[in-house]
Write a structure and sequence with these properties.
Two copies of one chain form a homodimer. Chain A is mostly helical. Chain A has six helices and two strands, in the order ααααββαα. A two-stranded antiparallel ribbon of chain A has the order 1-2. The longest helix of chain A has 17 residues. Chain B binds a DNA duplex through helix 4.
Chain lengths: ~120, ~120
Amino acid sequence: MNSESAALDSAFMALADPVRRSIIARLSRGPATVNELAEPFEISKQAVSKHIQVLEQAELVTRSRDAQRRPVHLNPARLEALTAWIDRYRLVREAQFRSLDAVLRSNTADSGDQSSKES
Amino acid sequence: MNSESAALDSAFMALADPVRRSIIARLSRGPATVNELAEPFEISKQAVSKHIQVLEQAELVTRSRDAQRRPVHLNPARLEALTAWIDRYRLVREAQFRSLDAVLRSNTADSGDQSSKES
DNA sequence: AGATTGATAAACCAAAAGGTTGATTAGGAA
DNA sequence: TTCCTAATCAACCTTTTGGTTTATCAATCT
């Protein structure tokens, strides 16, 4: 129960960084080594290594061994856990849309305010 | 291009906290005031107010006004943006699974590298 | 007006995140 | 052995996060 919360903590946190999301994007095209992953970025190789450790601790990636290299692989299962969390609220959101629709059809707005924003 | 990255930064970061995820869960059942949202937690009302500001800056929630109260509402659109990002890799992952299947059937120990794509 | 309620602002603090540089491990090749 | 390459570890620094407490704003009600 609470361990799932910690797993979501680390997974969402891991994705809250453009470098790490970019690493995920790269890995979706196949495994890569730390040096390969570090190449597009201006930060040091050590910094990228830390980012990979963050992703690994969140279990979004796994690692294997090939001589001195430690190739990084995407772990698809964890991404599913995130969509699963978000999907919990998808049905509820659709219900809210239906409620809003009902309100808009049956009633006029009360006070002047910025009721809805679109983006 | 980069503004979407910043939007994903703030949205993923906002969800990387159990209190804020719990607030999202609560709001999926309808709008609530800060006092109502703060009630289940042991932290101060000010701390919850800060959490809501984080969610608001990530545009995961919006606020309206009702006398002294400022009810918080869920903003479904932003959650969709997160699933959209994750879904980018769902198809790729399925392709990887198919590649793996092909490798297992042909039993050739070689890396199935894909052509390059950008995101 | 004054009091009350809901929510925020400001100042501050400890811990964590993200980065650096320098040293070190581990495996393979000369 | 010695050297080279891939990657990590360790120490350190700066900025951000998440929390507190005190004080303040804003709307409503006597």
